[in-house]
Amino acid sequence: MTRQRFNKCDHAEPVMFQLFPKTRKEWLRAIIFPFQAYMPVAFIVWQILEVIWPGGKYRFGELSTYHDFKSAVLQGYAICFWVLLIIATFQLSARQRTAAFLNVGWALVGALLGFFILVRDAVSS
């Protein structure tokens, strides 16, 4: 058996956590992340609060009823949907197809979850 010897150039050294992105692409990812994360997180929070907030009787900060909370979640979905579609359009024009399709996918997930919230409330009312 021969033993391989590695020079400094032969392997990548571990990178420590970076607090601030260094490249333009990393900055774009950092800016897009909250819009992408909103889609599943808002739906999970909405599901949890729907269970513990029966009939919209309770006050939750400035949101006085369940319907106020639902409209805030849906407005957030609409904002994230349009932001992700606009960014995906720019990414397609810059030939970053993978990132663009990922953002279109997140936008569609948000549209489906928002539609589910609307339909579920219409059926249960």
Arithmetic mean pLDDT: 78
Structural class: mainly alpha
Rounded to an integer, what's the Rg over CA atoms? 21 Å
Number of distinct helices: 3
State the helical fraction: 55-70%
Order of helices and strands: HHH
Task: Characterize the biggest β-sheet.
Answer: none
Uncertain spans: none
Residue share in β-strands = under 5%
Number of domains: 1
Distance between the termini: 74 Å
Number of strands: 0
Shape: elongated
Describe the 3D structure:
- It is a single chain.
- The radius of gyration is 21 Å and the shape is elongated.
- The protein has helices at residues 24-52, 66-93, 97-124.
- The chain is built from three helices and no strands.
- The N and C termini lie far apart (74 Å).
Secondary structure elements and their pairing?
Blueprint: H1 24-52, H2 66-93, H3 97-124
Which terms would index this structure?
mainly alpha, 125 residues
Brief summary:
This protein is mainly alpha-helical and 125 residues long.
